[in-house]
Amino acid sequence: MATPPKIPGMGAFVDKNPGASRPAAPAQVVAAARLMVAAAVVQLFASVVAIVYAASPDRLTAIQAQVDAMSGNVPSVESVRNMGVITVVVAGLATVCAYLLFAFFMNKGRSWARVAAGVLVALTLVQLVGISFPVGWTTVAQLGLGGLAVALCYLPQSNNYFAAVKAAGK
Length: 170
What we know:
The protein is an all-alpha fold and about 170 residues long. About 65% of the residues lie in helices and about 0% in strands. Helix 1 packs antiparallel against helix 3 (about 75-105).
């Protein structure tokens, strides 16, 4: 049987030593992964609300006012609204997938996942610009859930787990 090709960086996703046993994830890491899943659910809810708003008559009126103020080659109101809806859908799906992916690999002991989750939480801070309530509570909830998840991953017992998984070649 032929050996599979060597793909640089693939070791971050697949087990390098599949025969070795992986240490059990401590309660802090399991809780962190669950918090990340909860943040994904919050993002899903926020995305649904954003899609409903992006397709609403109120938003259409606001777009019409923006288009009326433009000069030159002016896009249609429908195309601007459709681009807004598509942007919200793609960004929402990407964020939900990122939260779930990082939670999965965090639970498997991949140290890069806790770093990436920290970056995702930091990027969520950008959403606080121009926040409007009551929908803005979803952003605050994501910051709280994600921040707590990342903090749990850097506790001493969690650090030991990530180091043990790395040492085991998993």
